Amino acid sequence: MTSDSIIIGLTVFVLALFVGYYVVWKVTPALHAPLMAVTNGISSVIIVGALISAGQDIDFDFARLMGFIALFLAGINAFGGFFIARRMVKMFKKN
Asked: Which of 48, 56, 70, 79 shows a CA-CA span of 20 to 30 A to 42?
């Protein structure tokens, strides 16, 4: 890994932090539940990438470890987020 690729990766990460922060704080409360559903979908895509990383036929190394950690955390985020979003939608539903 060269220093240029590390700098590019860190730059993308910091820009993503800023964009994410401003996108989330500009959301009205009425759009919060749909935004949560979209982020849960993104976590589901992360799960697929983590499965690819963790399931490679290579020795146990840093990439596989990060794949397992990403799989675990994205799973918690996706399933917990869908559970909370479902509860929020039920609050707005008339009985």
From this structure: 56
